[in-house]
Design a protein that fits this description.
It is a single chain. The protein has 118 residues and is mostly helical. The chain has one helix at residues 23-104.
């Protein structure tokens, strides 16, 4: 390849596209590029679909968390009042139990003094 045939203006070898390259190879290369482009489009579409599903799931979970947080914060005040009320009731129950236990204490029986033996 010392001759100047097959060189372009930059001095590089040209890739000849003529009857020496089979048409089947050209169709195969074009078909491969088209199939790869379609496959890339399909994968991108599936990825987009998965991202949308995750966004919907995240929004749903965020809404559930907000509902639970609001429900708990609104029920905290009545719950604390119930705890105070239960504490007062327990105090009354303890007082009543102490009185009942006092009534149930055995009363000491006075036995009469023994009679002197004669």
């Amino acid at each position: 390849m010392t001759d100047d045939q097959g060189l372009n203006a930059n001095g590089h070898h040209r890739w000849p596209v003529d009857r020496r390259i089979p048409v089947v190879w050209i169709f195969t290369i074009v078909a491969a590029i088209i199939l790869q482009t379609l496959g890339l489009g399909y994968v991108a579409g599936q990825f987009n679909k998965r991202v949308e599903i995750l966004e919907v799931r995240t929004d749903t979970q965020a809404a559930q968390i907000d509902r639970l947080t609001n429900a708990q914060s609104s029920s905290i005040i009545p719950l604390s009042e119930k705890v105070v009320t239960l504490g007062v009731k327990m105090d009354h129950i303890k007082e009543n139990m102490a009185r009942i236990e006092a009534y149930l204490q055995p009363v000491p029986v006075r036995r009469p003094a023994p009679l002197p033996v004669r």
